[in-house]
Design brief:
With 418 residues, this protein is α+β, with helices and mostly antiparallel strands. 47% of the residues lie in helices and 12% in strands. It is globular, with a radius of gyration of 23 Å. It starts with 6 loop residues before the first strand and ends in an 8-residue tail after the last strand.
């Protein structure tokens, strides 16, 4: 720890005390763009299944910053040259890496500013912060975008073994109450090295990496892609889909949130360019904007929107059924007919537009480890060996293959069997 630097100390339930250096890093932490992350759940709708999963994007950003400090100090101890400015800029990059997330995190990805990924918005917001702080984020942005000569600094931000993943797997597992997320972070950090300009893991850390890969796989299956979470995601998307349809039809839909109203009325899909006004309005959005509008709309006189909002607020979700194959056109016809009949019985419209708000097909794809373009490297006798080749665990290679699960989200009254 640099004794010449003053710190503000935060207590984190996952990593203990986190020392945030005063100056530009603390100013960024206190900036509204970052403070907004306190009002965005890290795991979207996972709290509807795991009651403890109420932690925020802010706690994750702060935890990642704390881990990054530990890693950079350790690498310095291992004779890696990291200047004060590089140290500070890397902290800024990891602190800001998630500021482009919208309400409910990945649940509404590309649904507020249509077809725009959160990483694109993160970079736009970092560039805006750089203007506000008169160029002090130049190096942080270069590290974030992998344009800085020391590649290992970007690898700590975004790679198969980055600080982002180390924090969220441990943090999400802890708050969800899923023990499989308990990875050996201390062991991984202590065995990190920089070899020929890249992050590698010393051979004695290989078993901690095996545990990390397996934990990532289990967290996807048990938490991130839990069937009830998927059902909640689709229900929330159906509400926004229906609201957009009503506005397009000229219905005067009431809004609680002016920021959300902007994206429904004034920011129509078209140009891929995100305007300054759209960006400024986006940072006014958080989970509360969505929830308060749903509370308004559950009393609105449009039956379908009212029903969807009531279901979401009362956790009366649809059902998720996993399939052993991609469904056929004939399957869809049958399920749509059953959904239309169920809606009739419920006294709701049964047209195709409404059916599409109650029946969804999708598939999930997850890979615990991808080595083809961005692998983890193990240092063996001064030679870096790709992890799947260095490990003697025969199951590791199987974890490099993508797991694809087809699923239907549907009314519980609809049977997927003939």
């Amino acid at each position: 720890m640099d004794k010449s630097t003053q710190y503000k100390i935060f207590t984190d339930p996952v990593h203990g005390f986190i020392h945030v250096p005063k100056g530009i890093v603390l100013k960024l932490l206190d900036h509204p763009y970052v403070q907004r992350l306190r009002r965005i759940r890290q795991l979207g709708l996972a709290n509807t299944v795991f009651p403890g999963a109420e932690h925020s994007r802010f706690s994750h950003a702060l935890g990642a910053l704390g881990l990054m400090q530990r890693v950079l100090h350790h690498l310095r101890e291992r004779d890696t040259t990291i200047t004060h400015r590089e140290f500070e800029s890397t902290l800024m990059a990891i602190l800001l890496h998630d500021i482009g997330h919208g309400p409910f995190s990945h649940t509404l990805e590309k649904s507020i500013i249509l077809n725009t990924h959160h990483e694109e918005l993160t970079l736009l917001l970092m560039e805006e912060l750089n203007r506000q702080f008169e160029g002090q984020l130049d190096m942080a942005i270069a590290i974030f975008t992998d344009k800085y000569p020391k590649k290992f600094l970007h690898q700590l931000i975004a790679s198969q073994l980055d600080i982002d993943r180390l924090d969220y797997i441990r943090r999400d597992g802890m708050f969800a109450g899923v023990q499989e997320g308990a990875i050996g972070i201390d062991r991984i950090i202590r065995t990190m090295r920089v070899h020929q300009g890249n992050i590698v893991i010393d051979k004695k850390g290989i078993y901690a990496i095996e545990n990390y890969i397996v934990a990532r796989r289990l967290m996807y299956m048990q938490v991130y892609l839990h069937k009830t979470v998927l059902a909640g995601d689709k229900l929330l998307l159906a509400i926004l889909q229906k609201a957009r349809q009503l506005i397009d039809q000229g219905v005067d839909l009431p809004f609680y949130s002016p920021a959300l109203e902007f994206f429904f009325r004034d920011n129509k899909p078209g140009s891929r360019k995100v305007t300054k006004r759209a960006l400024d309005t986006f940072v006014d959005l958080d989970d509360n904007d969505i929830l308060m509008n749903l509370k308004y709309w559950q009393h609105f006189d449009q039956a379908v929107l009212r029903d969807l909002c009531r279901r979401f607020l009362n956790r009366d979700f649809f059902r998720t059924t996993f399939l052993d194959r991609k469904p056929s056109r004939k399957d869809f016809v049958r399920w749509k007919e059953q959904t239309a009949a169920a809606l009739d019985r419920m006294g709701l419209p049964s047209d195709d537009e409404t059916v599409d708000c109650y029946l969804f097909y999708d598939f999930s794809q997850s890979e615990a480890y991808t080595y083809h373009s961005d692998g983890i490297w193990i240092l063996q006798k001064d030679v870096a060996v790709e992890f799947s080749k260095a490990s003697d665990n025969q199951h590791i290679l199987a974890l490099t293959k993508p797991v694809i699960k087809h699923y239907i989200v549907h009314l519980k009254e609809v049977s997927l069997h003939t």
